[in-house]
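Sample entry was shown:
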Amino acid sequence: MRRPDLAELPAAMAAIDLAGPGDADALARLLTASFGEPWDAAKVRSYLLDEPTVSQTFLIRDGDRVVATASARTLPERYPGAGYLHWVAADPEARGRGIGREVVLAVLQRFVVEGCTASVLETDDHRLAAIKLYLRLGYVPQYPDPDHERRWSVIFRALLGPAGSR
């Protein structure tokens, strides 16, 4: 998906923190719970905290618990001028409170600071709640592979429901 411009971004309303080395275990717990695949502190450091293409990882906390995260990444050879929205996660117990939107907005605002003019992301077809959020935030589908048009047709039918009532 691609957000073709970064103009007129709404302000993030939640208190956003930047992740540091001491957050690796909490991020691993959140990413494991959110994606259903095992994460540990070493993987968090490798993919996020120590990865040179990731400029910042944002967090939302609920007390001592990390409940949402998203990272700002740039891959200029693959996506010139665009920031790559990376590893967006919300604690399953905290979903529905708008925290995913808030960390995504923090990343988009970071891209503006970095001089990016657009944003891209990749997600899985079954992550319908995330796709709804990305569409509401101005991302549009991209069709880099021949089967993507068919896949997006399935996604839109799932989002709209059988009568198109959603």
Residues 85 and 163 are 32 Å apart (CA to CA). Residues 2-160 form a domain with the Aminopeptidase fold (CATH 3.40.630.30). The chain has one domain: 2-160. The helical segments are 24-35, 41-49, 99-113, 128-136, 148-160.
